[in-house]
């Protein structure tokens, strides 16, 4: 959650809007529905596999599209190839949580995502004997 929070808090400001995939991990959902609105950041949840819904939900204030490679715990998979293209066309930052998929199953940066977050406490560590998170991406993504 520290990696997710640091990413969102550094990319967003009051009056921004976020598109977020439905069915996200509970901690992330709480951050998006409780903490971001208190900072004046609006969040709209959309189905991860419905680009038509994304087009309807995007606003001139939308800055970021957040999703998970595989949602936790429901294992829903978004239209992963469409998200970076959608975001690029609109000047949005695409952020994906790849914790559940791990880099063994999916490498988001190679598919055009701007930023990738991981809970290193889970599969990357494998022993649950540390608490860590990671954020990866190009520095240019931070300047969008």
What does the model show?
The protein is α/β, with parallel strands linked by helices and 144 residues long. It is built from 7 helices and 6 strands. Strands 2-1-3-4-5-6 form a 6-stranded mixed sheet, sandwiched between helices. The longest helix is centred in the N-terminal third of the chain and has 13 residues. The two termini are 23 Å apart.
- Largest pleated sheet: 6 strands, mixed
How many helices does DSSP assign?
7
How much is the average pLDDT?
91
Measured between the Cα atoms of the first and last residue, the distance is: 23 Å
Q: What's the helical proportion of residues?
A: 25-40%
What are the salient characteristics of this protein?
single chain; 144 residues; alpha/beta; 7 helices
Give the arrangement of secondary structure elements.
Blueprint: H1 2-11, E1 17-21, H2 26-38, E2 42-46, H3 51-57, E3 62-68, H4 82-90, E4 93-97, H5 102-105, E5 115-119, H6 120-124, E6 133-137, H7 139-142
Provide a quick synopsis of the model:
This protein has helices at residues 2-11, 26-38, 51-57, 82-90, 102-105, 120-124, 139-142; strands at 17-21, 42-46, 62-68, 93-97, 115-119, 133-137. With 144 residues, it is an alpha/beta fold. Strands 2-1-3-4-5-6 form a six-stranded mixed beta sheet, sandwiched between helices.
